[in-house]
């Protein structure tokens, strides 16, 4: 009742939390954190208490202080969310949550900003970044052990601050708040590295769970900042530390081992799709102890609890088991010098088709019935561009279908004998076209910048570009990529610019040749001879760099080599367009003769680095 007077219009009061007063917005005055600050994802600085009346005898003034300061030592991060309002009630953990138990005393003094970043991780970061089936581990279990472990606590503050800074910049709130969150997050990032070194080097230490959790959280920090190289290093360190010996450390929370496996393997799969390293980051003993992606054989008759998410896990298992993924995507750029045999590719296709037949939840939600195999008799020239959109009940199901289509197209393309229209090439084209339809359906719904760290349609469009049937398909793909925006590690504009530069290389090749390079399907070239774009991971500068390679095969089509034909470097404006671009052209130089070898050197050093048990992250 004390706040009921504020409901009358026309009355102005100088109350509210310090943050809302500073932002000059109306505060709902919920305590200890107002709903306005929760919605804006900003730090609520609490409420200023009235100054006490000084004693006329002593003449001592009581200094002003905030309620948040007086309560910071007795209020836990979860108690901050307690409120009778419907909006904030969703942040209160269930009675069964580990966070509902009494939280041990803090290992050190915590400030309001630290509690706010911890609160942001629990209520916003964890639900956004981690799969629903593992959210209990990351939000509740990890959030609980952080109160007794400085290493995990600092890692949570790092991801909470960096993620909050991303959201503030995306929503165009004050630059000052965004910078404060980012600086605080990076400060905790550095402290996590310091604690990580002492934790992993301590003699006789066997409990590696905090180091693994912290390594995964730091990898996510780098993903949000769009830095693939350091993300891969953290990911490998966490994967190497995770093994059967870790299971006893998680005995109090049995789902933890599976959650850690699934999260590391998910990031590993995404990273291998961007940078073609060949060895998975989870060690072999860990792979055998817990089936890849942390799931057991879901195709068995006794399987229960099936979902679209579990069907995606099964698909990734199949892809990851085949040749460590790299050769099927990257072909000659991978560390292997020979292409997969036709027998291996056929087995891979049969595994994919078996998954397709046993994944009803993924495909039943499609707006139309999809054939198991495409109708190759349908003329490709008559397929409309823009394509008819293909809709699914969920975005997750749509992306799982697109992922399946991408690898079916890859395998059919590699089985193609090089002729213009053999059946394998036609199948590859039809799978690519179905992905164009899925992309049209997704963009018809919504496509915007997000921090989602997962496979996205922009990556699948980028990988499918080399298997487009016509120049018209390729042009549409580039236009669609420009609509995708920045999504975690995936930058649709950078993908679009990388592919657009291929046109300049093709034009140069046509001008220098003595014959017209125009096969039946519109200057895109034969599948085996098309240019392979390789977008370098972005470094600390604001430049993007891509190399362009042309595959060559031996007469028996078994061994493959790469020749570098060009390099492009450019900067992007705020809209993602190329502000300036510089080309360097090469006359079919070997990969080792140009700067692209630096990426391969980094990949090889990443794969060859020793086990990090006794090294710092």
UniProtKB/TrEMBL annotation:
<dbReference type="InterPro" id="IPR021858">
    <property type="entry name" value="Fun_TF"/>
</dbReference>
<keyword id="KW-0479">Metal-binding</keyword>
<protein>
    <submittedName>
        <fullName>Zn(2)-C6 fungal-type domain-containing protein</fullName>
    </submittedName>
</protein>
<keyword id="KW-0804">Transcription</keyword>
<dbReference type="GO" id="GO:0000981">
    <property type="term" value="F:DNA-binding transcription factor activity, RNA polymerase II-specific"/>
</dbReference>
<keyword id="KW-0805">Transcription regulation</keyword>
<dbReference type="GO" id="GO:0008270">
    <property type="term" value="F:zinc ion binding"/>
</dbReference>
<feature type="compositionally biased region" description="Polar residues">
    <location>
        <begin position="71"/>
        <end position="87"/>
    </location>
</feature>
<dbReference type="Pfam" id="PF11951">
    <property type="entry name" value="Fungal_trans_2"/>
</dbReference>
<keyword id="KW-0238">DNA-binding</keyword>
<dbReference type="InterPro" id="IPR001138">
    <property type="entry name" value="Zn2Cys6_DnaBD"/>
</dbReference>
<feature type="region of interest" description="Disordered">
    <location>
        <begin position="58"/>
        <end position="107"/>
    </location>
</feature>
<keyword id="KW-0539">Nucleus</keyword>
<feature type="domain" description="Zn(2)-C6 fungal-type">
    <location>
        <begin position="16"/>
        <end position="44"/>
    </location>
</feature>
<dbReference type="Pfam" id="PF00172">
    <property type="entry name" value="Zn_clus"/>
</dbReference>
<dbReference type="InterPro" id="IPR052360">
    <property type="entry name" value="Transcr_Regulatory_Proteins"/>
</dbReference>
<keyword id="KW-0862">Zinc</keyword>
<dbReference type="GO" id="GO:0003677">
    <property type="term" value="F:DNA binding"/>
</dbReference>
<dbReference type="InterPro" id="IPR036864">
    <property type="entry name" value="Zn2-C6_fun-type_DNA-bd_sf"/>
</dbReference>
